[in-house]
Amino acid sequence: IHGFIMWKNDILERLTSFDMEALKKEYHAHPEYGLINIPNFLPEKCTHICASELDGIPIEDCKNFTRKGSCMYECNDLSITPYQDKLVHALNSSEFVYWLEELTGVKKLISDPHLIGAGYMKSFKGDTLQVHTDFNWVEELALNRAVSIIIYFNKDWKKEWGGSLNFYDTKNDKLLSSIKPDFGNMLIWTYKNLVYHGYPDPM
Questions:
Q1: Which member of 45, 129, 155, 173 has the greatest number of CB atoms within 10 A?
Q2: What is the per-residue DSSP string for the chain?
Q3: pTM, whole model, 2 decimals?
């Protein structure tokens, strides 16, 4: 329990280092829907530990996600990923949820303890994430999706490798943003039915 408390406290203390007003301004300035990419979001030691844990997960312990030619491997089994468990514990905390509500302007958020469509994700050379919109309804909670978060744990990523997450307008006609998956960055966006995103070119 002590380890969980220390991990959570380190992350919550990190939140106080950000200028909330500046973050809100950037978030709501994004065209059509709120979106922000926050560099070095987690304490550095947390980022490195999670990255090492993710790297060490055998592919056979992951669920293979495929849809319309996409390929991604997901692991949300917290019993075999103790540091992911600590991170989820911190991000599901009341303090973080309130911080997220203030940033996004989306109130009454409820975090998903079941990690439906969430957890550690792996992709490899040649993989893609075809442009899509996320599912809305979470049956296990009987709630709609409201906000999505990604934290990147890939070290020393080069832009020419691809994998930048593209975000398009609600007609899927115009590229609005392209987010390079830099180590330690947190990407947050407001869910809407027509937030098209993906990296369609193979990495």
A1: 129
A2: -HHHHHHHHHHHHHHTTS-HHHHHHHHHHSSSS-EEEETT-S-HHHHHHHHHHHHTS-GGGSEEE-STT--EEEE--TTS-HHHHHHHHHHTSHHHHHHHHHHH---S----TT-TT-SEEE--TT--EEEE----EETTTTEE--EEEEE---TT--GGG---EEEE-TTS-SEEEEE---TT-EEEEE--TT--EEE-S--
A3: 0.92
Q: Compute the half-sphere exposure of residue 56: CA atoms within 13 Å on the CB side of its CA.
A: 11
Structure tokens at 30: 């994004």
Q: What does each of the 203 residues of the chain score in pLDDT, given as a tens digit?
A: 445 557 888 999 999 999 999 999 999 999 999 999 999 999 999 999 999 999 999 999 999 988 778 898 999 899 999 999 999 999 999 999 999 999 999 999 999 988 888 899 999 999 989 888 887 888 888 888 899 999 999 999 999 999 999 999 999 999 999 999 999 999 999 987 789 898 988 89
14, amino acid identity = R
